Amino acid sequence: MGKIKFLIVGLFLLSISGSCRYEEPSFSFTRIKDRIRGEWRVDKVEKNGEASTAFPCYEERQTSIFSFYQTGVCIIDYSQDNINIKTAEGTWNFGDKKKTLIVNVKGEQQIISRVYTIVKFSNKELKLTYTDSNGDKWTLYLGLILSFIDYGW
């Protein structure tokens, strides 16, 4: 009987440690696809590892709000010239065994198609990176404002 308990505990611990794709909570009852549903604000932007006041596009600037819905809809609210609130709408999905986040939105001036690498993903923090066509590596640090899990959105 003791061997069976030991085997079950061992298999459980192995399944938890083997499932890590990126920095995330060691254990969560919430599915990854549910955990991302909500409003996330861009708190910080880095370019090539340095804090930056520049941004890749208006939709990805500091203070922009990414909203991820259960239906796969993605809406990004952002300000242009720190005055007008604009909205970009499109879709989101996970890719590469949930190691990447694919976002396709149509902004006022351009269509944005990004494949972000998920570096960190917890209940309150999301860290995404991607490399642009110039070879610059951008990192977006997002903080959860409102979770949609309880609302079914």
Please explain how this structure is put together.
The chain has two helices and nine strands. Strands 1-3-4-5-6-7-8-9 form an eight-stranded antiparallel β-barrel. The chain has a single domain (2-148), classed as Lipocalin (Beta Barrel). It is mainly β. A hairpin with a 4-residue loop joins strand 3 (65-68) and strand 4. The N and C termini lie far apart (46 Å).
List the helices and strands and how they pair.
Blueprint: H1 2-18, H2 32-35, E1 38-47, E2 50-51, E3 65-68, E4 73-80, E5 84-95, E6 100-106, E7 111-121, E8 125-131, E9 137-147
Antiparallel strand pairs: 1-2, 1-3, 1-9, 3-4, 4-5, 5-6, 6-7, 7-8, 8-9
The number of distinct β-strands equals: 9
Structural class: mainly beta
Give me the number of helical elements: 2
Q: What's the overall geometry?
A: globular
**Roughly how much helix do the residues carry, as a percent range?**
10-25%
pLDDT averaged over residues:
82
What's the SSE pattern?
A: HHEEEEEEEEE
Quick structural overview:
With 153 residues, this protein is mainly beta. The protein is built from 2 helices and 9 strands. The protein has a single domain, classed as Lipocalin.
